[in-house]
Design brief:
Elements (H helix, E strand, L loop, with lengths): L1 E6 L2 E6 L9 E10 L2 H9 L6 E2 L3 E9 L11 E5 L9 E5 L3 E3 L6 H4 L2 H14 L6 E5 L3 H12 L3 E6 L2 H10 L4 E4 L3 H12 L4 E6 L8 H8 E9 L9 H7 L2 E4 L28 H13 L9 E6 L3 H10 L5 E5 L2
Parallel strand pairs: 9-10, 9-12, 10-11, 12-13, 13-14, 15-16
Antiparallel strand pairs: 1-2, 1-4, 3-5, 3-7, 3-16, 5-6, 6-8
């Protein structure tokens, strides 16, 4: 079995032993896996010496199931999320809590983005918005695009910003009612916010950018309403002005991955689900919600898939992401 790893800033394909099925897991033959550009390029640039598996989001065909798995069977198509169980690899061994059946007729390429979908949905939940409230999404990479779509479907008033006009066009192709502005025009952003919120400010700002730039949270605090909420989904410096923070009395919160259960070995490795009555939206239920929205054509990803590479052309795929500013959704195929 082969998998994609990075070491010392280089990407390579290595041979690994096939994973061993456990009582609570599902063995999956990968059909597509999606690259998460911000996360994976960040790992590559860190130049770790020990080889690190890349990827966390895929779709494939079930080869076998553990003895306790009763609702998935061999031959089913499932979408899977979460390292170290899911990565760019030919065969995956995934705990039952981290995979969801894909209904017939759903695009497998769109299903492969289930990890990003779950992360986006959890980020929106962290904003704690109510029906009809307003939200500003800062950054329109894949994550920001999905977040904006989820917010629109939840009937929030959505404003989105990005420095790249092509990304604004992509969002407007999804729905022209979403207001999309260039992120370097601060006054225009403020004017539109005040226009739709009656000079109050947006109820929440979701930062989905991946950047080393300091000051993004300060910008968000300028845009958010008093006692509003700033949600950090992307990877950015978390320094900000105490004075702006104090004046707005806003909440600044981090959104961790796809939701409750992430990094909990009992939930993930042992596949012990949290009771729904106590934890309504776990990471497993969030990825399931993503698949439901895709199946109902409420979230659209296909138009954002700009490049498709065979699994064996991994180096070319990551080089494209680093060099081509128009590259957004990049996907590996395995057959």
């Amino acid at each position: 079995m082969k998998a994609i790893v990075t070491s010392l800033g280089q990407v390579s394909i290595v041979s690994q032993p096939e994973p061993v099925l456990s009582d609570v897991s599902v063995l999956v033959k990968t059909i597509y896996s999606a690259i998460s550009p911000g996360t994976e390029l960040g790992i590559i640039h860190n130049k770790t010496e020990i080889p690190h598996a890349l990827g966390y989001s895929a779709v494939g065909e079930v080869l076998d199931v553990g003895s306790t798995v009763t609702d998935i069977k061999t031959g089913d198509i499932v979408a899977c999320y979460g390292g170290p169980y899911v990565h760019h690899s030919e065969i995956l061994n995934v705990p039952r809590t981290l995979c969801v059946k894909v209904p017939e007729g759903v695009s497998l390429k769109e299903a492969a983005f289930v990890g990003l979908g779950g992360i986006a949905i959890h980020g929106v939940r962290r904003a704690k918005l109510q029906f009809g409230e307003s939200v500003l999404v800062m950054g329109l990479g894949l994550l920001g695009q999905i977040i904006s779509q989820v917010c629109y479907q939840a009937n929030y008033q959505v404003i989105a910003t990005d420095i790249n006009p092509i990304r604004c066009e992509l969002l407007n192709n999804y729905n022209s009612n979403v207001i999309c502005l260039r992120s370097d025009n601060n006054q225009q952003i403020k004017n539109r916010i005040y226009e739709i919120t009656e000079n109050f400010g947006v109820d929440a700002v979701i930062i989905s950018a991946h950047s080393t730039k300091v000051g993004l949270i300060d910008q968000a605090l300028d845009y958010v309403a008093p006692q509003g909420r700033v949600v950090v989904v992307g990877n950015i410096p978390t320094s900000y002005s105490r004075e702006r923070f104090f004046q707005k009395e806003a909440d600044v919160v981090i959104s961790r991955a796809a939701g409750p259960g992430r990094y909990d070995p009992q939930y993930e490795k042992q596949a012990i689900d949290y009771p729904k009555s106590y934890v309504r939206w776990t990471e497993g239920r969030n990825i399931s919600e993503y698949i439901r929205l895709v199946s109902e054509n409420k979230i659209k990803i296909d138009h954002m898939i700009t490049k498709e590479f065979h699994f064996h052309n991994a180096q070319e795929a990551y080089q494209t992401l680093q060099e081509d500013p128009t590259a957004l959704g990049v996907i590996f195929k395995y057959e």
